[in-house]
C-alpha cells in the first residue's frame, strides 16, 4: 500500500537531486532500496563527496563524522540536509514532520524513538542524530519486530548495539527479532572485543585468535556477567529457548540438548567445541567425523586407510559432467564392491555443473531426477537409497524461493512418477537444506557447512533433519592409501548403503516386449512435452510415429547392440531424438541433395518450395549425412568390426551413394547409428578431432554416455545442451531395457 509521506519523500529526492546524483526513483509511495540509495547519494552530495555511490561506506561515515558528529535543530547544516533526514524517517516508518527542512520537535522525538528501538539510547542519549544512527536510518533494516520476530532475539540485537556501537568497526544491526548474517557477525565482533582485541584487530572472523581466546572462556552453571550474556545470546540465535542472561541449570539442560543434536560430547558446559558450533557453521573444524565424501576412487588401500581412521560412511558421486577434470569423481567400476568388502557404507551424491541460479529450473529438476535414477540403477544401488541432489552455490533467499524450491519440487514429482525407487536428499547450505526440507521435497540434509562465508550458512541454525555435516577437507592414509576427503559429522539419520545389486556390466540387451509399449510411449511423450520438444507444426512425424519406427526396427537395434557390446539405449536414444527432430526443412534439404546429384527433383519433392542444390544433408531416421556415414563406417571397417568396403568421403558420387542408402533404407540407417557412436568414441578420425574415449561398452559411466550422445550431434553449445536433454531419454529407454534383461 502506498504511503503519502513516502511518496512526498520520493518526489523531494527526485526534484531536488535527480539531476545531481545520477538517479531517480519510482514515485509509488513504497519504501525500497532504490529510495534509500537515492537518499544516501543525496547525503553524499550535501557532504561534498564527488564520487557518489549507493553504499553508506567508510568515506560517507568518516566525512559525516568529521563535519557533523551530532545533528540537531541547532547544528543541521541546511534545510535540504534536514529534508533528507525527514524523508528517511518516513521511509523507516517514523514521523518526519512536514519535510519542510525543520528539525522540529516531531523530528527530534522520532530520532529519539529510533535510537531507543535500536538500543543505543544509553550510548547516544537525547534526540540528536549521530553518524552511525544516520547510517542505520538509510538502509532497509527494521528496528522493531517484523514477520513474527522473536522478542528474545530483538533484546540481544539491542544489547549488542548499545554495548558496542562506539567501537570503530561495529555498526548498528537490525532489531527485527531475526538472526541474520550481520547479527551473527556482530556477535563475533562482541566476543573479540571482550577478549581484548583492539579496533582494527577485531574483524568478525572466527580465526585463530578468537578460537584461542574462547578456549580460555568456558561457561557453566553459575557463570554471570558479559560472558554468560554472550553465550546465552549465541544459544538463542541458534534457536535454543533459554533466558538471555546468567548461565543457570535451565541453560545447562538446553546445552546438553544442543550438544547431543550437533553430536558433541554431552556435558552441559559451554566449552570451546560448543562455542564453536554456536558461532560458525563448521563448529570446531578439527572434530573427528565418521563420514566423508570425496572425488577420488576408493581403492582397497584407501578403504583400509579410511576404516583405520574411523570412517564408516563414504559419499560418492553418481555423475561427473567432465570427461577430463577429476577423472575419478564419479563412482568407478568395482568401487562399490570394495566399499562393501571393507565394511564401509556409501551414500550417493548427484551433481552436475549447478553453480548458479540459472541452472535450477523445474525442467532441469525432472531431467536430473531421471539421470540420477539411471545412474543409481547402473551402479547397483538398491531401492530406498537416498540420493543427495546438490545445490553447491551461495543462493540468496529469493533464489531459494524462485529457483531451488521449484527445482526440488520437480525432482520429487518425477521421483513419485517413477514409482519412488529412491529417496531424495538435499546437499547445500543451511538455509537451502532447511527450506527444501520444510517444503517436504527432501526429508534429510547433507549440509555444506564448510562454506562458512555462504550467506545461507552464516546466521542460520543447523537444519533439524541433518544427516551429514561437511566441516573440513583433510587427508588420511599414506602411500597408495593416501586420500583427500571432506570430513563429515554423521547424525545417524542416514547410514548409506552397505550392499548393492550386481552391476549389469556383462548382461546383453534383449528384444522389446510389446506389452510395455503404452507405458514407454507415455513416459517418452511426457518427457518430450516437459522440455518443449513435443509434437510441433514443423515436425514431419509425431512422437508416437517416431517411437513406432524404433520399435519396428527393434530386432536390428538389439542385434547391433549385442554384436558391438554397447547399450541398446545408446542406439535408441540417438535415433529417436534425431527422428523426432526431422522437420519439413530437412525434407527440403533432402530434395536439394537429389536435385544436386541428378539435376531433377524426386517425385516426393516436386511440391516443396525453397529447394536449392545441396551436396549432402543429414537424412533418415538417424539424420546421418553421406559424409559422416562413410567416415563412421570406414572407422569400423579399419577396426575390423564391420565387413565392408571403405568409401571415399570426398568423392561426391560415393557420398551420394551412401546418402541414398541412408535416406531410403531404414534398416541400413539404423544399423549405421552404432557405428556413429563407435566413430565418435574413437575421436571422429577424418573429421574435427575429438579426444579419444574408450569404445562403447556395457558399463559406460554417465559422463561417457553424455559425451557420446553429444558427439553424435556435433560440438558447441547446442550439442552440449541437447545432450543433457537426451540423457533422460536414454534413462527411460534403459529402464525398460534393464527390466527386460532382468537387471
UniProtKB/TrEMBL annotation:
Entry keyword annotation includes Ribosomal protein: no
Domain of life: Bacteria
Keywords (A to Z) from UniProt: Hydrolase
GO molecular function: hydrolase activity
The UniProt record lists the keyword Hydrolase: yes
Peptidoglycan binding-like domain: residues covered: 242-278
All residue ranges annotated as the Rv2525c-like glycoside hydrolase-like domain in the record: 304-489
Protein name: Glycoside hydrolase domain-containing protein
Organism in which the protein naturally occurs: Streptomyces sp. R08
Amino acid at each position: 500500500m502506498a504511503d503519502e509521506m513516502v511518496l512526498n519523500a520520493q518526489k523531494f529526492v527526485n526534484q531536488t537531486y535527480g539531476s545531481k546524483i545520477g538517479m531517480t526513483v519510482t514515485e509509488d509511495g513504497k519504501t525500497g532500496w532504490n529510495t534509500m540509495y537515492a537518499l544516501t547519494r543525496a547525503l553524499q552530495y550535501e557532504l561534498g563527496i564527488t564520487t557518489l555511490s549507493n553504499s553508506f561506506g567508510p568515506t560517507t561515515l568518516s566525512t559525516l563524522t568529521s563535519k557533523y558528529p551530532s545533528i540537531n535543530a541547532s547544528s543541521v547544516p541546511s534545510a535540504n540536509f534536514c529534508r533528507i533526514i525527514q524523508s528517511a524517517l518516513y521511509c523507516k516508518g517514523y514521523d518526519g514532520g512536514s519535510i519542510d527542512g525543520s528539525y522540529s520537535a516531531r523530528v527530534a522525538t522520532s530520532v529519539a524513538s529510533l535510537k531507543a528501538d535500536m538500543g543505543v539510547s544509553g550510548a547516544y542519549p537525547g534526540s540528536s542524530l549521530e553518524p552511525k544512527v544516520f547510517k542505520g536510518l538509510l538502509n532497509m533494516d527494521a528496528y522493531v519486530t517484523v514477520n513474527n520476530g522473536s522478542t528474545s532475539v530483538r533484546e540481544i540485537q539491542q544489547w549488542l548495539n548499545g554495548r558496542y556501537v562506539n567501537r570503530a568497526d561495529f555498526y548498528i544491526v537490525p532489531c527485527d527479532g531475526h538472526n541474520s548474517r550481520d547479527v551473527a557477525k556482530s556477535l563475533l565482533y562482541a566476543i573479540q572485543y571482550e577478549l581484548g582485541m583492539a579496533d582494527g584487530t577485531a574483524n568478525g572472523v572466527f580465526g585463530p585468535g578468537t578460537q584461542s581466546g574462547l578456549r580460555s572462556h568456558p561457561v557453566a552453571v553459575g557463570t554471570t556477567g558479559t560472558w554468560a550474556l554472550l553465550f546465552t545470546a549465541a544459544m538463542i540465535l541458534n534457536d535454543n529457548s533459554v533466558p538471555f542472561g546468567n548461565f543457570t541449570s535451565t541453560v545447562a539442560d538446553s546445552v546438553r540438548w544442543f550438544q547431543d543434536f550437533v553430536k558433541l560430547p554431552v556435558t552441559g558446559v559451554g566449552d570451546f567445541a560448543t562455542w564453536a558450533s554456536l558461532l560458525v557453521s563448521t563448529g570446531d573444524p578439527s572434530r573427528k567425523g565418521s563420514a566423508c565424501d570425496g572425488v577420488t576412487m576408493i581403492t582397497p588401500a584407501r578403504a583400509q586407510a579410511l576404516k583405520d581412521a574411523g570412517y564408516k560412511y563414504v559419499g560418492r558421486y553418481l555423475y561427473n559432467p567432465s570427461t577430463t577434470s577429476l577423472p575419478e569423481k564419479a563412482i568407478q567400476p568395482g568401487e562399490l564392491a570394495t566399499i562393501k568388502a571393507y565394511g564401509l557404507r556409501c551414500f550417493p551424491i548427484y551433481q552436475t555443473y549447478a553453480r548458479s541460479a540459472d541452472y535450477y529450473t523445474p525442467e532441469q529438476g525432472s531431467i536430473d531426477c531421471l539421470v540420477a535414477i539411471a545412474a543409481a540403477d547402473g551402479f547397483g544401488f538398491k531401492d530406498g537409497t537416498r540420493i543427495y541432489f546438490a545445490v553447491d552455490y551461495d543462493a540468496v533467499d529469493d533464489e531459494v524461493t524462485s529457483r531451488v524450491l521449484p527445482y526440488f519440487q520437480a525432482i520429487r514429482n518425477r521421483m513419485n512418477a517413477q514409482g519412488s525407487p529412491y529417496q531424495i536428499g538435499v546437499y547445500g547450505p543451511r538455509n537451502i537444506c532447511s527450506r527444501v526440507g520444510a517444503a517436504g521435497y527432501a526429508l534429510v540434509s547433507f549440509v555444506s557447512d564448510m562454506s562458512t562465508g555462504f550467506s545461507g550458512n552464516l546466521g542460520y541454525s543447523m537444519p533439524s533433519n541433518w544427516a551429514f555435516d561437511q566441516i573440513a577437507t583433510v587427508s588420511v592414509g599414506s602411500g597408495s592409501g593416501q586420500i583427500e576427503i571432506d570430513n563429515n559429522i554423521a547424525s545417524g539419520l542416514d547410514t548409506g548403503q552397505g550392499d548393492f545389486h550386481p552391476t549389469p556390466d556383462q548382461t546383453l540387451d534383449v528384444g522389446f516386449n510389446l506389452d510395455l509399449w503404452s507405458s514407454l510411449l507415455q513416459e517418452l511423450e511426457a518427457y518430450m512435452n516437459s522440455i518443449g520438444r513435443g509434437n510441433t507444426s514443423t515436425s514431419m512425424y509425431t512422437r508416437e510415429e517416431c517411437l513406432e519406427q524404433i520399435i519396428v526396427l527393434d530386432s536390428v537395434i538389439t542385434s547391433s547392440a549385442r554384436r558391438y557390446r554397447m547399450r541398446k539405449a545408446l542406439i535408441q536414444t540417438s535415433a529417436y531424438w534425431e527422428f523426432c527432430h526431422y522437420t519439413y526443412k530437412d525434407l527440403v534439404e533432402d530434395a536439394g541433395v537429389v536435385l544436386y546429384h541428378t539435376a531433377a527433383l524426386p517425385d516426393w519433392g516436386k511440391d516443396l518450395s525453397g529447394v536449392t542444390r545441396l551436396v549432402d544433408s543429414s537424412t533418415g531416421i538417424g539424420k546421418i549425412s553421406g559424409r559422416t556415414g562413410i567416415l563412421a563406417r570406414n572407422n569400423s571397417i579399419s577396426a575390423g568390426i564391420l565387413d565392408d568396403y571403405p568409401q571415399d568421403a570426398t568423392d561426391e558420387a560415393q557420398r551420394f551413394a551412401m546418402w541414398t542408402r541412408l535416406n531410403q533404407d531404414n534398416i541400413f540407417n539404423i544399423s549405421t547409428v552404432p557405428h556413429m557412436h563407435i566413430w565418435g568414441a574413437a575421436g571422429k578420425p577424418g573429421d574435427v578431432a575429438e579426444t579419444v574415449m574408450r569404445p562403447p561398452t556395457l558399463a559406460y559411466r554417465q559422463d561417457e554416455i553424455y559425451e557420446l550422445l553429444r558427439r553424435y550431434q556435433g560440438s558447441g553449445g547446442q550439442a552440449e545442451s541437447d545432450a543433457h536433454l537426451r540423457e533422460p531419454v536414454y534413462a527411460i529407454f534403459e529402464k525398460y531395457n534393464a527390466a527386460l534383461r532382468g537387471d
